[in-house]
Write a structure and sequence with these properties.
With about 190 residues, this protein is of the alpha+beta class. The chain has one domain: tt1808, chain A (Alpha-Beta Complex), CATH 3.90.1570.10. It is built from 4 helices and 14 strands. The strands form 4 sheets. It has a 6-stranded mixed β-sheet with strand order 3-6-9-10-11-12, sandwiched between helices. A 4-stranded mixed β-sheet has the order 5-4-8-7, with no helix packed on it. It has a two-stranded antiparallel sheet with strand order 1-2. A hairpin with a 2-residue loop joins strand 11 and strand 12.
């Protein structure tokens, strides 16, 4: 199939045919080209976060995954027109796993801000994850060394903010706290 065109709507089936070396996300049928490789700080934070989550989840039913990993947020309806690739996700329902990713809302999504994606992550994805039922959404800001944690309650996110000296509790994983000093590598 040819590459996505402006002013057209697409489905996950269309998305699977785009093989141009570019990574894409699809939100409500609208394609978004993903930025080139992120800065090294972004990757260092991702490695540390995934390590802390992996260590906590050993021997537990939940699993952590990092991008690229397709998350089909509305895979179980006729539209199936939304697929994103968050930086990190935690899935506690094994039956959501299949093929190249997850079908349905993960329990936890983490996006690490980059200059080119910050607005998209804070607004478009925030609203998408909230309406899709993602139980917890973290926005990690490498520049300010902060984490905004959004926990879904009655269909609306409530927010808390954590800084570099904090341990951030993970609502969907009781007993799990992420050491942000290690995440932001502050001596």
């Amino acid at each position: 199939m040819s590459l996505p065109q402006e002013n057209q709507r697409y489905t996950y089936a269309d998305y699977c045919t785009w093989d141009d070396g570019q990574r894409w996300e699809l939100i409500d049928g609208v394609p978004y080209a993903m930025s080139p490789a992120p800065r090294w700080e972004h990757q260092e934070i991702l490695v540390e976060l995934s390590g802390q989550f992996h260590n906590f989840l050993k021997g537990k039913p939940c699993k952590v995954f990092v991008a690229p990993f397709d998350v089909q947020l509305n895979a179980n309806n006729d539209k199936n027109d939304t697929v994103v690739q968050p930086d990190l996700i935690v899935i506690c329902d094994y039956y959501k796993l299949g093929g190249t990713g997850c079908k349905g809302a993960p329990d936890l999504v983490i996006e690490i801000l980059s200059p080119s994606t910050a607005t998209h992550d804070k607004w478009v994805k925030f609203n998408l994850y909230q309406r899709s039922g993602v139980r917890e959404y973290w926005i990690v800001d490498p520049d300010s060394k902060t984490v905004s944690v959004h926990v879904l309650k009655d269909g609306i996110y409530t927010a808390a903010a954590y800084g570099v000296t904090d341990n951030a509790p993970v609502s969907v994983l009781p007993g799990c706290e992420i050491n942000l000093q290690d995440v932001f590598d502050v001596e």
